[in-house]
């Protein structure tokens, strides 16, 4: 609560306040706003602030109130659709004019010197950085990128419904990756064939896999694209819908799926079976289906891509 009037003295009857949830100490910003009213301009040489402390106030809490920095004021202004429509009705004002004079844009301009300084530092660091065998490193990186593109082209063939659908039986272990997040290995529970309803022309069919996965993808440090990636020690498994284009690995292993997976215990036990299979196989990892010998993909373009690998 702020005061909109000058006063000779400002008194805090308590240094704790109720913020609607619990009681807490007055923040530095609240103290600055209210204590700043002490002292009338042109009448008082100084103002007086009195704080009535009716409970133990630690040194850290007192320092945070009296000498702490106020919370930064960051603008969250943005133009909404309704605001944009209203601006179009006024000829003298356009969205660029409004944004240019907003506090948000003022803060962005204020950050420019620091950003420019950081840019110069990064450019200097880049110019002074020297790599041993830079040509070899560059060549290696290009090979990695080319290999990634070739593998993705190969998987575009493998994910075609005429090749992959017959292998997505319940219990099949598949590896899921989407938007750069590696979710590791999961268990196929069901495969559903759907039709797009928003098409005016002939209906387009697509497939959705009900897959048992961990709710959270493994961290980047523990995630691995290899078949030997470890599963979480405390699984929190859930049956999630997955598109075909998220599949990046198909194992030859199939697990026995219980009839009832409604309980978390049943889902977690089935998900934990993946780790048990890996331990049983040892360091060899999960065996993968071969696109040619197992899935019988004989497309000429696919064979050419495979020869490149």
UniProtKB/TrEMBL annotation:
The keyword Protein biosynthesis does not apply. Keywords: ATP-binding, Helicase, Hydrolase, Nucleotide-binding. InterPro entries: Beta-barrel_MTR4, Helicase_C-like, MTR4-like_stalk, P-loop_NTPase, RNA-DNA_Helicase. GO terms for biological process: maturation of 5.8S rRNA. GO terms for cellular component: nucleus. GO terms for molecular function: ATP binding; helicase activity; hydrolase activity. The keyword ATP-binding applies. Residues 1-88 form the Helicase C-terminal domain. PANTHER family: ATP-DEPENDENT RNA AND DNA HELICASE, EXOSOME RNA HELICASE MTR4. This is Helicase C-terminal domain-containing protein. The lineage of its organism: Eukaryota, Metazoa, Spiralia, Lophotrochozoa, Platyhelminthes.
């Amino acid at each position: 609560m702020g005061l909109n009037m000058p006063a000779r003295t400002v008194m805090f009857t308590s240094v704790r306040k109720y913020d609607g949830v619990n009681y807490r100490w007055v923040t530095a910003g609240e103290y600055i706003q209210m204590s700043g009213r002490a002292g009338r301009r042109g009448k008082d040489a100084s103002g007086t602030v009195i704080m009535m402390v009716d409970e133990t106030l630690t040194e850290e809490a007192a320092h945070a109130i009296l000498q702490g920095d106020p919370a930064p004021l960051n603008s969250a202004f943005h133009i909404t659709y309704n605001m944009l429509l209203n601006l179009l009705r006024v000829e003298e004002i356009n969205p660029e004019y409004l944004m240019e004079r907003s506090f948000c844009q003022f803060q962005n301009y204020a950050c420019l010197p620091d950003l420019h300084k950081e840019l110069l530092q990064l450019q200097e660091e880049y110019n002074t950085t020297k790599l041993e065998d830079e040509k070899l490193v560059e060549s290696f990186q290009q090979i990695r990128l080319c290999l990634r593109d070739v593998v993705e082209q190969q998987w575009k063939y493998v994910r075609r419904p005429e090749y992959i659908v017959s292998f997505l039986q319940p219990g099949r272990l598949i590896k899921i990756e989407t938007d750069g997040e590696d979710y590791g290995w999961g268990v196929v529970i069901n495969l559903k064939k759907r039709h797009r309803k928003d098409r005016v022309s002939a209906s387009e069919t697509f497939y959705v896999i009900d897959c048992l996965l961990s709710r959270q993808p493994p961290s980047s440090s523990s995630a691995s694209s290899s078949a030997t990636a470890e599963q979480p020690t405390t699984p929190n498994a859930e049956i999630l819908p997955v598109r075909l284009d998220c599949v990046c690995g198909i194992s030859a292993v199939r697990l026995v799926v219980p009839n009832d997976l409604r309980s978390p215990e049943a889902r977690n036990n089935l998900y934990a079976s993946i780790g048990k299979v890996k331990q049983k196989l040892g360091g060899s990892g999960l065996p993968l289906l071969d696109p040619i010998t197992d899935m019988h993909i004989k497309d000429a373009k696919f064979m050419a891509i495979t020869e490149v690998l």
